[in-house]
Known about the structure:
Two copies of one chain form a homodimer.
Chain A: H1 5-18, H2 21-26, H3 30-58, H4 62-79, E1 87-88, H5 91-101, H6 110-132, H7 144-167, H8 176-185, H9 192-218, H10 223-231, H11 233-248, H12 275-306, H13 313-329, E2 336-337, H14 339-347, H15 354-370, H16 379-391, H17 397-405, H18 407-423, H19 425-445, E3 449-454, E4 461-463, E5 475-480, H20 489-502, E6 508-512, H21 521-537, E7 540-544, H22 548-554, H23 559-562, E8 567-568, H24 571-579
Parallel strand pairs in A: 5-6, 6-7, 7-8
Antiparallel strand pairs in A: 1-2, 3-4, 3-5
Helix pairs in contact in A: 3-4, 3-5, 3-14, 3-15, 3-16, 4-13, 4-15, 5-12, 6-12, 6-13, 7-8, 7-16, 7-18, 7-19, 9-10, 9-11, 9-16, 12-14, 17-18, 18-19, 20-21
Subcellular location (chains A, B): Membrane
Keywords (chains A, B): Membrane, Transmembrane, Transmembrane helix
Domain STAS (chains A, B): 465-580
Amino acid sequence: MWFPHYRLNKSMTYFARYLPILDWGRRYDRSAFSNDMIAAVIVTIMLIPQSLAYALLAGLPPEAGIYASIAPIVLYAIFGTSKALAVGPVAVVSLLTASAIGQVAETGTAGYAVAALTLAGLSGAFLVLLGVLRLGFLANFLSHPVIAGFITASGILIATSQLKHILGISAHGHTLPEMLGSIGAHLDQINLVTVVIGLSATGFLFWVRGSLKPLLKRLGMGPLMTDLLAKAGPVAAVASTTMAVWIFDLHGVGVKIVGDVPQSLPPFTIPGLSPDLIKTLLVPAILISVIGFVESISVAQTLAAKKRQRIDPDQELIGLGAANLGAAFTGGFPVTGGFSRSVVNFDAGSETPAAGIFTAIGLTVAALALTPLVYYLPNATLAATIIVAVLSLVDFSILRKTWGYARADFIAVAATIALTLIMGVEVGVASGVGISILLHLYKTSRPHVAEVGLVSGTQHFRNVKRHAVETNPNILTLRVDESLYFVNARFLEDLVHSRVTAGCDIKDVVLMFSAVNEVDFSALESLEAINLRLIDMGVGLHLSEVKGPVMDRLKKSHLIGDINGKVFLSQYDAWVSLTR
Amino acid sequence: MWFPHYRLNKSMTYFARYLPILDWGRRYDRSAFSNDMIAAVIVTIMLIPQSLAYALLAGLPPEAGIYASIAPIVLYAIFGTSKALAVGPVAVVSLLTASAIGQVAETGTAGYAVAALTLAGLSGAFLVLLGVLRLGFLANFLSHPVIAGFITASGILIATSQLKHILGISAHGHTLPEMLGSIGAHLDQINLVTVVIGLSATGFLFWVRGSLKPLLKRLGMGPLMTDLLAKAGPVAAVASTTMAVWIFDLHGVGVKIVGDVPQSLPPFTIPGLSPDLIKTLLVPAILISVIGFVESISVAQTLAAKKRQRIDPDQELIGLGAANLGAAFTGGFPVTGGFSRSVVNFDAGSETPAAGIFTAIGLTVAALALTPLVYYLPNATLAATIIVAVLSLVDFSILRKTWGYARADFIAVAATIALTLIMGVEVGVASGVGISILLHLYKTSRPHVAEVGLVSGTQHFRNVKRHAVETNPNILTLRVDESLYFVNARFLEDLVHSRVTAGCDIKDVVLMFSAVNEVDFSALESLEAINLRLIDMGVGLHLSEVKGPVMDRLKKSHLIGDINGKVFLSQYDAWVSLTR
C-alpha cells in the first residue's frame, strides 16, 4: 500500500502528542528497565500502608485504596508527561472525597462506594475536557499563598479527623468545630489499648522521620541504606502493631482492625449515573479536579526542573483525567499525583513512566496475595501514618511572609485558612480563589497615577513626588500605572477632570501610556469622554509611549482621529514638542 | 449654653455629608422655587400614566406605582446628591421585580404585594450598607458594553411581556421563549377591540415621538411648546382611549381596564420578614440594587456633567437605599433613578431636589383625588406607553462597535444579550459580569512580552519586531506588558526559561518593568525562582524602570538582596552599563 511518508510522520506526531508513551517507549532500554524496577519495588512497599490509610481517610474499605493505585498509575504512565510522578490516592484529595460523599451517603454503605466511583468519573471527565480544550492555565487562578494556606488548613483537618482512630472512638464531621465537638461528645468511648498503639505508632513515626537518619549516619551507615531504613518506618510500624494485635488478641479487647480484605484483582465497577447524584457531586468533582491538578502539576514541575525536563500542563490534565476515569471503573476513588510517593519514586531512581507500570504490577500481586497479612492491622496505626505524613504539610510561615510583603496576599491566605478550618474544604478554597480575584480587581480599580517630570540630563521621566525632575506649569503629564478597562474606566475620567479643573494654567494634558497594557471598550469610551471634555475647555490631549498592541487597537476606533492633540512615540518627544 | 464654634461647624459638616439637603436647603431662594415648581407640574403629569404602567409591568395593582413614586422621591431629595435625578419605578427594575417575585407568589395575591415590599426593603438595606461601607466602586464591575447589552435585551423582554395586554390575552413567562410560547398558546383568546386600541395607541405614541416635533416646528411653533406637546403624548393617549372605553362601553366587550384604584394616601406597610422569603429574595434584591444603582448613577452623572456638578457615588447609594426603604414601608416596590423621568425633570428646569418634593406632593393629590379618572383606562394603552418607551432603549449597535474594537468586549455583550433573552434577566446580567471578569483575567494570564532594543539616537526602547532598533546578542531585554500576579506568575517563569535556553550567547537578562504595576507574592516567588535558575546558568538578572510603589514592595523581600545583577533607574542606564 502506498503511504506518503510525510503523512505517516504527521499522524505519528499527532498521536505522540496525546500518547507520550509512544515517544519514550520507543527509546526504552535495559538500563532504564533495571532502574525502573528497583524504584518500583521500593514504591510498592511504601504504597501498601499508604493506600490503606487514604482509603480509611476517604471513608472507604481498605482495598479501595489499593485498587485506586493500580489502574490509575498505568493510565497515567500512558497519557502523562512527567517521568517521576506517582499517581494514586493522596491526603488532601481523600479528605475532599470524604467531605463530598458524606453529603450523599453514610460511610460503609454501598451508596457511599458508588458515590466515590461517580466522583472519580466526573473528576476524570472534567480533567480530560479541560485538557482537550487546553484550559490548563485555569489552575493559575489558585495563587501560591492560597494553595499554601489551603494545604496547611487541610493538614490540620486531616490530622484531626484521624484522632478518633487513635482514641478508638467513633466521631464525625467535616470542619474543625464539628470534629472537635464530636470527639468531645464521644470521649467516654475511649479504648485505652487503642490509644497506646496509636500514640506509640505516632511517636515512633515522628522519631523515624526526625531522628533516625542522623542517628544512622552517626553510626556510620551509608546514605542509601539510611534512606531505605527511614522510608521503611511506616512498614515497620504496620508490621509490629499487626503482630502485637495478633499475638495478644487485642481485637478481643476492642482494638479496631482492618479485618477481611478480599483477595482479588481490581474489580470492574460502573459509577452511578443518576442525574441527582451527578448534580450533587458535580461541584465537588470540579473542585477535586482543580486542587488535584494543582497539587500534581506542582510536584511534576518541581521534579522535572531538577532533570531539566518539560511538563505539558494540558497533557497532564489528560493524564490525570484518564487516571481518574480508570479509578472510576476499577473500584477506586479520586486520585492525583502525590507529593510523597512521587518524591520516593524520583529518589529511588525511576527513569520513565514504566516504573509506574511495574509498581502497578507489584500492587496487583499484593492485592491478590498479601491482603490476609493486614487482617490484624489496627486502624490506629494507619491513622498514625496519616497524621505524621500530613503534619509535615502544616506550615504557618506563609502568614508571616505574606504579612511582611503584601497585605492583599495575607488577607487571602488568612481567609483561606480560617474558612477551610471553620466552614470546610470546599468553602475554604473557593473563598480563597474568590478573595484573591476580588482583591486584585479592587487594586486595579483604583490605579496608581503619577504626575511625572523629566529627570535632568536624560530623556527619562519619573514621579514628581519621588524624584527631582523638571516640570512645566502648562503641561500636565500623567503616567497611568494600570491597564485601562471597565473596572477603572470611570476612575481615570474623574481623575483627569479633577486635575485639570484644579490647575488653571494647564494647556496640555499628556497621558503617558507606558504602563497601559490594554484599553478595552469601556475605557475607550472614557478616553473619548475625556477628549470631548478637554476640547470644551480648550486643553490639548496627547498620548505618549503607547505600546504596539494597544495602538493597533486604538487605530480601529475614532479616538485617534478625533483626539485634540497628538500621539507621541516617546514621552521625551512629547516634552520637546510641547515645551518648544 | 457655651458651645465651641469649631465643634458646631465640624458636626454640621458631618451631618451635611450624610444629609446633602442641609447644604442646598440653606441656600434655597424664590427663583429656584419657581423653577422647581414648574418642573414638578410637568413631571407629575408625565409620571401618572408611567407609574400605573410600571406597576402593571411589575405585576402589581396600579396604585402601587403611584405610591412607589411618592415617599421614595422625598427620601431621595433628602439623602441624594443629584440635583436632577427623579426616583421611582423604572422599566428594567420593574421587570426584574416581576421576575423575582414570580418565583415566590402568584400575580394578584396578597403574598405577591408583600414580596414586592420585602424586595424593596432588602434592596434598600443592601444599598445603604454598600453606601456606609463606601463600596460604590463595585458598580464598576458592570462594564459599559455589558450594561448596553443588558438594557437592549431587557427592552426586548419588556416589550414582549406587554404584547399580551395589546392582544387582550393572558400569558406569562420571564424569558423570550417562555413568553412567545405562552402567547402562541393563548392566541385563541385575542380580543379584537383591545388590539385596535393597543395598536392605535402604540402607533400614535411612535408618531408623537418621531414625527410630531418636526411637524410642529415646520408649523412655526416655539421650541418650548413643541417640547411640551410632545411630552403630553402619553397623557393624550391615556385620555382619549379612556374616553373611548367609557363612551362606547368597551369594557362590556372584553377590553381589560385599570378599574377601581383606591383614593388614599400611600398606606403604611410592613415588608414580610419570614426567613424563607428573605432567603429566596436576597440574591434578586442584590441584583436589583446593583442594576438600579448603575442605571441611576449613569443618569445622574450624565446630567451633572452638563451643569458641572458633582455626584458622590457612595452618598448616591444611601439616597437610593433610603428611597427603596421608603417604598417598602409605603406600599411600593423597588425603585431607582429613571432615565426618562430624570431627563424630563432636567429639561423642565428643576434646580434642586425640592422639585422632587413638589412632584411627590402633586402625586399625593393625584392619589387622593384623581384615581377615579383612570377607572376606564385600558391596560392596552399602558402597555403601549411601555412598549414605546422601552423600544427606544433597544440598540444593537453596541454589537457592531465592540466587534470592530475588541473581541473580548463583543463576546461579553453577545453573551449578555443572548443569555438575558433566553435564560432571563438574572442569569443574563450575572453571566455578563462573570464573563467580563474571566476574559480580563484570561488576557492578563498570557501577557504580551516584547523583546526591546534602543531606538537609535534616543534613550528610548521599543519592540524589536515593530521598530528598527539596536540590540546586543549578549543582552536579552524583555519588556513585560502586564502586572505580575498569581494568574500569570508561572507564565513569566516559563517564558524566561525558554528564551534563555534558546539563545546560547545570552549573558544578561534585563526585565524592563515600565508596565509592571504590581508584583504580588506569587509573582515574587516566580522572580526568585527565575533568579535562582539564572544564577545556576551563570546569567545575570537585572531589573529596569521599576516604579516607586513596586520598588517599595520589592524592598521588603529578599529578592533585591539576592538578585544576580542590578536594579537600574532607566532602561538606558542598564543598556549603557551592560554594553560598556
